[in-house]
């Protein structure tokens, strides 16, 4: 007979217990619901209006126009998927494995496509402003190039999203990554966040830093009383990008760098909560893109106003009452003209190109 | 005997306990994030579950379940953990011997269920 005794063992901190990973969920879910609803509503309205304007009122005339259409498509794809993601995460995941794959893939595609296209927009502005003289010849062929670039970006986003789609499955009504081999698990668990950090943030960030820095230098040299406002618009675009995406990518870097090592339960919980909150901030960029890029353009807003008139809406007064925003958005066109004049070029600028 | 077999038999053993541990819901994953270095007395260990890094959790672990339904995280690489598992194995072997003495040999097999890495 086994002589094991039922000793009254006092558990001390020396004994590690399983750590509840989602302890914050009850506190967070209410706030998240309101924020996500706002993101869905603004993102849906903003991006649909951008697409409507291009479809019925304005043909894409420049590289930036083509990029903006694709950004709106990418953001719309994600904004449509977001309610389904929220629903399945709040209750049990009830839509099965394929919905799990597609919805996770939709977010992944949006991150890559949106950020890389925003980098292309900064590149286009760099060419238009800083390389104004040299870019004159190539601008007639620019639209064809931009379509090829957009296709390449969508394809790259698809390839980079494949691991996310392949390894996500539904199990016990949770949408999680599941692997069959230990080596594969280790490799992919590092690869997915690493690719997202590099191609979804660092590469676009470096392109933006380079292009917008030179753009601002050129603008500051221009003898124009509105140059500071143009610089502020460029800075706003850049810093909103950084504010939305930097916290999440830093949290992701911290999490990934300690993926297979021990850490305390409290540290684990704080890391996961930080990831969750900063991801929400990253989602915000989907509904800010139409405001930052599309509605700043003068001609675009006149077309937008045309939509409102066609819908028999009284928004016209609201659109034109903001004099300061009118001045701000005029800066893009006047800044381009100023630089073009200094370079002896009478290029007719797009309303979205600096 | 492989760890999978030990796990399966351990589940048999656990299912015979009078009180099953309180279950975490599927929305509330609980994972070991560090290991216990202080050896547990064998007498308080009632069973174990294997945690795998092939799914949600980041690291592999052995989760010992005590007679008071506490879960203790441990690493298979530690010597005391392997000794504890060997101790459980001998207890399971005795249990099998008792079961085989009865004529209802199908009893233990009927309660075998699929393995899951979620904490029960």
TrEMBL record, chain A:
Q: Matching Pfam families, A to Z?
A: 7tm_1
**Gene Ontology MF terms in the entry:** C-C chemokine binding; C-C chemokine receptor activity
State if Magnesium is listed as a keyword. no
The protein's matches in InterPro entries, at most eight in alphabetical order, are given as: CCR1-9-like, GPCR_Rhodpsn, GPCR_Rhodpsn_7TM
Q: What is this protein called?
A: C-C chemokine receptor type 6
Q: Which residues form the G-protein coupled receptors family 1 profile domain?
A: 46-293
UniProt keyword Cell wall biogenesis/degradation present: no
Q: Name the UniProt key words of this record, in alphabetical order.
A: Cell membrane, G-protein coupled receptor, Glycoprotein, Membrane, Receptor, Transducer, Transmembrane, Transmembrane helix
Q: Which residues cross the membrane?
A: 34-57, 66-86, 148-167, 187-212, 233-255
This entry carries the following GO cellular component terms, namely: external side of plasma membrane
Membrane topology label: Multi-pass membrane protein
Give the species this sequence originates from.
Danio rerio (Zebrafish)
The entry's localization annotation reads: Cell membrane
Where is this chain primarily localised? Answer: membrane
- GO process terms (BP): calcium-mediated signaling; cell chemotaxis; immune response; positive regulation of cytosolic calcium ion concentration
TrEMBL record, chain B:
Cite the InterPro entries for this sequence. Answer: Chemokine_b/g/d, Chemokine_IL8-like_dom, Interleukin_8-like_sf
Q: Does the keyword Mitochondrion apply?
A: no
Signal peptide as annotated in the record: 1-23
* Alphabetically ordered keywords of this record: Cytokine, Signal
Q: Coiled-coil segments, which residues?
A: none
Q: Where is the Chemokine interleukin-8-like domain?
A: 28-88
Offer a single GO CC term for the protein: extracellular space
**Record-level Gene Ontology MF annotations:** chemokine activity
What Pfam families does this protein's entry cite?
Answer: IL8
- A biological process term (GO) from this entry: immune response
The protein's name: C-C motif chemokine 20
The source organism is Danio rerio (Zebrafish)
């Amino acid at each position: 007979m086994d002589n094991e005794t039922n000793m009254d063992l006092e558990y001390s901190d020396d004994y590690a217990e399983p750590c509840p990973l989602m302890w914050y969920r009850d506190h967070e879910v209410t706030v998240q619901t309101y924020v996500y609803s706002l993101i869905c509503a603004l993102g849906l309205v903003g991006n649909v209006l951008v697409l409507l304007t291009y479809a019925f009122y304005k043909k894409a005339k420049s590289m930036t126009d083509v990029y903006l259409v694709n950004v709106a498509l990418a953001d719309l794809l994600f904004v449509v998927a977001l309610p389904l993601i929220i629903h399945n995460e709040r209750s049990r995941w009830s839509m099965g494995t394929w919905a799990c794959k597609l919805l996770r893939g939709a977010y992944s595609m949006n991150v890559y496509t949106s950020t890389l296209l925003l980098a292309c927009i900064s590149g286009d502005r760099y060419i238009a402003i800083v390389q104004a003289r040299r870019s004159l010849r190539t601008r007639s062929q620019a639209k064809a190039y931009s379509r090829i670039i957009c296709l390449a970006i969508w394809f790259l986003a698809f390839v980079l999203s494949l691991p996310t789609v392949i390894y996500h499955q539904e199990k016990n009504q949770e949408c999680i990554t599941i692997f069959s081999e230990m080596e594969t698990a280790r490799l992919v668990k590092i690869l997915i966040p690493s690719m997202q950090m590099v191609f979804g943030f660092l590469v676009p960030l470096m392109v933006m830093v380079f292009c917008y820095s030179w753009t601002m230098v050129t603008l500051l040299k221009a003898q124009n009383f509105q140059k500071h406002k143009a610089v502020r618009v460029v800075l706003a675009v850049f810093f909103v990008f950084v504010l939305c995406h930097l916290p999440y990518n830093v949290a992701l870097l911290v999490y990934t760098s300690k993926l297979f090592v021990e850490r305390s339960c409290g540290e684990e919980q704080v890391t996961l909560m930080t990831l969750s909150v900063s991801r929400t901030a990253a989602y915000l960029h989907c509904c800010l893109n139409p405001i930052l890029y599309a509605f700043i353009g003068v001609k675009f807003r006149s077309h937008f106003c045309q939509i409102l008139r066609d819908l028999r809406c009284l928004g016209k007064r609201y659109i034109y009452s903001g004099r300061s925003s009118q001045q701000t958005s005029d800066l893009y066109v006047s800044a381009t003209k100023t630089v073009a004049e200094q370079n002896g070029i009478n290029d007719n600028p797009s309303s979205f190109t600096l | 005997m492989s760890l999978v077999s030990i796990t399966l038999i351990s589940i048999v053993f656990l299912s015979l306990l009078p009180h099953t541990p309180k279950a975490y819901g599927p929305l509330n994953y609980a994972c070991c994030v560090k290991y216990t270095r202080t050896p547990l007395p064998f007498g308080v260990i009632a069973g174990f579950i294997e945690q795998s890094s092939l799914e949600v959790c980041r690291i592999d672990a052995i989760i010992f379940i005590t007679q008071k339904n506490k879960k203790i995280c441990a690493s298979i690489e530690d010597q005391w953990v392997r000794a504890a598992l060997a101790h459980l194995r001998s207890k399971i072997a005795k249990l099998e011997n008792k079961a085989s003495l009865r004529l209802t040999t199908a009893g233990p097999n009927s309660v075998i269920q699929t393995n899951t890495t979620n904490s029960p």
